[in-house]
Specification:
single chain, alpha+beta, OB fold (Dihydrolipoamide Acetyltransferase, E2P), five-stranded antiparallel β-sheet, 5 helices, 7 strands
């Protein structure tokens, strides 16, 4: 993968319409969830059109996203946003209802963990942004490899700018420091994510 050309294509994709992906590999945007609440959450996770420029919330930045305090209503699911951060880790997501319990790597989300600075290692300080199978397939159609393996090789240990949709993933509220402060199992700062990520840009510095 050529990083510079791939990233230019990814950035160009942000301002173009994605192909219709209401059904992806037999999986609708609501996934295979039975709860109406989770179905609606999955529809947000599986958005495939980039947010309009007018929909971007310019007040969102990584420092404000990790700011302590109950943040359930701090942002809006209908907003686009941009985050600049240091990539602590890139991991394959779990088997989830949003992807109809797909087990193959290309059918699962990719988790990118962002922190405010390179020396930050605490899980409760990390913000999760996610690449979805739908967007990954659209990028692949443009010759851009957004597989978990490729993104891990390219991004870990680097500063990045990511853009996409804001999403409050209520399924992780009990594992987030802002909504369940002090819990031993917290592995993230907040349930707020950029999900799906529509653009990734490597930066030389924050």
């Amino acid at each position: 993968m050529n990083p510079s050309s791939s990233l230019l294509l990814a950035l160009a994709f942000l301002s173009t319409a994605a192909p219709a992906q209401e059904i992806f590999h037999g999986c609708g945007r609501a996934g295979d969830a039975t709860s109406s609440l989770v179905q609606e959450l999955n529809r947000l996770k599986n958005r495939y059109q980039p947010p309009d420029t007018a929909a971007f919330d310019s007040s969102v930045n990584l420092a404000r996203v990790v700011k302590p305090g109950n943040d359930e209503n701090r942002w809006n699911d209908s907003s686009g946003a941009e985050l600049v951060g240091f990539v602590y880790a890139v991991k394959e997501g779990g088997v989830e209802t949003c992807n109809c319990h797909a087990t193959a790597p290309d059918g699962r989300d990719t988790h990118i963990e962002l922190v405010l600075h390179p020396l930050e290692t605490q899980g409760k300080k990390r913000v999760i942004v996610e690449v979805t199978p739908r967007v990954r397939a659209a990028m692949n159609a443009h010759g851009v490899d957004w597989s978990t393996r490729a993104l891990k090789k390219l991004l870990v240990g680097h500063w990045v700018r990511v853009r996409g949709w804001m999403l409050y993933d209520i399924e992780h509220a009990d594992e987030s420091e802002n909504t369940n402060p002090g819990a031993r199992g917290n592995w993230r700062a907040t349930a707020w994510e950029i999900h799906p990520v529509m653009s990734i840009e490597l930066l030389s510095h924050p």
